[in-house]
Amino acid sequence: MKVCVKCTHVISFFPRSHLHHMELSNKTRISEFFLLGFSEEPELQPLIFGLFLSMYLITVFGNMLIILAVSTDPNLHTPMYFFLANLSFVDICFTSTTVPKMLWNIQTQSKVITYEDCITQMNFFIIFSVLDDFLLSVMAYDRFVAICHPLQYTVIMNPRLCGLLVLVSWIMSVLYSLLQTLMVLRLSFCTEVEIPHFFCELNQMIQLACSDTFLNDMMMYFATVLLGGAPLAGVLYSYSKIVSSIRRISSALGKYKAFSTCASHLSVVSLFYCTGLGVYLSSAATQSSHWSATASVMYTVVTPMLNPFIYSLRNRDIKGALRRFSAMAAIKGLIVLG
User: Fold this and answer.
1) 17 part of a folded domain
2) Beta bridge partners of 33
3) Do residues 67 and 312 make contact, with C-beta atoms less than 8 angstroms apart?
4) Domain harbouring 304, CATH code
5) Domain containing 286: what range?
6) Which of 331, 319, 332 is nearest to 76 (CA)?
7) What is the end-to-end Cα distance of the chain in Å, rounded?
8) Does 45 reside within a domain?
9) Of the chain's two ends, which shows fewer C-beta atoms within 10 Å, N or C?
10) What is the pLDDT of residues 36-46, one digit of tens each?
11) Please, are residues 83 and 139 in contact by the beta-carbon 8 Å criterion?
């Protein structure tokens, strides 16, 4: 067997560290990912497109109605509805980070997403998912003060504190998302990376990395316990105090009125945490990325879509405000047409 002397001279000309740097740079110079989505069968694409377009439009329209009702009706200018309007805004942004790109890919029959767009999508998805978690815990605290300390409610839940709670939630969400994004940016990826999901999800990005992901895994698990467990513990503590306060009310009518003020929020909290926990447990049990992508639709799309229905159907104030807003819009429309 002949050995090419010229080749050995060329290879020996470069130090090992330089060759390693060249090999690493080839890994990190990835320009795009491929979002595999739910199914590659062409006959299912129109069905998936129509289903997700409908859910997205319902989500945006329903949450926009909540925001407009709260902002235009003076009767809803209270801490509870202030937080609800913020939750509706976050739900619109939460869904808008993933669904429009998926719809665009189906429409153009392309699964490509650039590296920069993928990192950006992941960054905003983390921000709004953590914000959802924080706002639900803040709303639980609001209900705790309203039921357990009704006489001090207006003093405790003053506009300054309400604005501060929302601001702190935004700051913590942005800082956490920035930290996770910077840690993903340090990872190197192989070429032609396929993401078995319909959006760039943090866990999928870490699993596809070619470099060492120990720090990323530890940070993700620690953040899940801290940012997921702490708000959930706050919600559970608040509702344990609420239940004990309701049990001390003597009249059945008083118990019903007290419970009705937090029934909608309790439904939304149960839906959010149960779907999120269900997705985590199902993906851990099946180890199937396709099933994980399908199950994640529950908390990324279905939950934001159902929140306006839960609050409007179970809340007399919201239904009254929506009726007044619809009547006002109809009158203005008639004036314009006349």
Assistant:
1) no
2) 113, 193
3) no
4) 1.20.1070.10
5) 32-319
6) 319
7) 94
8) yes
9) N
10) 888 778 888 89
11) yes
